[in-house]
Amino acid sequence: MPVNQKDRRRFLKYASLGLVGVTVGTQLRKVAYAGDMPQLSLDDPTAKALKYVHASEVEGQNCENCMHLTGNAGDEWRPCNLFPGKLVAAEGWCAGWVKKP
């Protein structure tokens, strides 16, 4: 096998391993820092715009059963895709609520 093909294969192998490492590292970092995030304030401009409340008044709809909520099931405060960098109450609600599939 020519030297160029060996170098090319080695490069592709290490590049793919690097990509996997970056992806896994990013996901682990999100999980590690979830506990360090502040709780969403009702005064937050995005919270006001989406009419967020800490306790849902809409029957059958809360953050716990919304597709935007992430993190560990059962936690009282969890990350939400609509409010990056903030934790929302699992019993909360906002106008961006979408039922989990």
Summarize the structure.
The chain has a two-stranded antiparallel ribbon with strand order 1-2.
Question: How would you sum up this structure, described in words?
Answer:
Specific class of high-redox-potential 4Fe-4S ferredoxins. Functions in anaerobic electron transport in most purple and in some other photosynthetic bacteria and in at least one genus (Paracoccus) of halophilic, denitrifying bacteria. This protein is an alpha+beta fold and 101 residues long. The protein has 2 domains: 1-36; 38-101, High potential iron-sulphur protein (High-Potential Iron-Sulfur Protein, Chain A). It has helices at residues 3-33, 45-49; strands spanning 77-80, 83-89. A two-stranded antiparallel ribbon has the order 1-2. It is elongated, with a radius of gyration of 20 Å.
Tell me the β content: 5-15%
The overall number of domains is 2
CATH superfamily of the largest domain: High potential iron-sulphur protein
**Secondary-structure element pattern, one letter each:** HHEE
Helix content: 25-40%
State the secondary-structure class: alpha+beta
Total number of helical segments?
A: 2
Subunit structure: Homodimer.
Pfam families: HIPIP (PF01355)
Keywords: 4Fe-4S, Electron transport, Iron, Iron-sulfur, Metal-binding, Transport
Protein name: High-potential iron-sulfur protein
